[in-house]
Amino acid sequence: MSPSEHIRKSYNVFLLLYHLECSTKYRRFVLSPKVDRILKQSCLSIEDRYEIQFIEIESDKNHVHFLLQSVPTYSPSKIARTIKSITDREIFSQAPGVKRALWGGCFWGSGFYINTVGQYANEEIIANYVKNQGKEEEYKSLYKTKQLRFF
Length: 151
What we know:
The protein is of the alpha+beta class. 34% of the residues lie in helices and 22% in strands. The protein has helices at 33-49, 76-94, 96-101, 123-131, and strands at 7-8, 13-14, 16-23, 52-59, 63-70, 113-117. The strands form two sheets. Strands 4-5-3-6 form a four-stranded antiparallel β-sheet, with helices on one face. It is elongated, with a radius of gyration of 19 Å. The mean pLDDT is 84.
C-alpha cells in the first residue's frame, strides 16, 4: 500500500483513512525519545504483517496520534486493538522502566478515539454526488437526517 492512495483489490477499490488517538495508562508521561523509537519500529513491523499503513505518527508526553490507512475487512476497533496490543508488548519488552512506571499494567489506557478522514470529500460533496447520479426528475430522497444518533 502506498500512503493515501486508492487500494485496488480484485473486485473493489477503496481509500480508508483513519485518525487514531491513544493515551497512555493513567495519562502518565512515559513517552520518551526511546519509547518513541520503539513505537515507530513496532508500527513499521505492523505494516509488514497487517494491511495497515501508517502515514503519520505523532506523540506528546501522554498520548499518540496516528494517521493511517487500512482495508475494509479491518474494523476500526480491530485496527486500534492490533496497534495497541503489539506496541504495548514491544514497549514493555524493550523498555522495562516504562512497565515499572505504569505499575506493571498495560501501556495504553482502555479507550481510544478514532475518526475517518476524508481526503477527497465531505458530507455535502458526497450528498451532491449521490443526488446527481440519476436524472433529476427521477431522483427522490428516501431519507435524510442532519445528525447521526447512536443511542
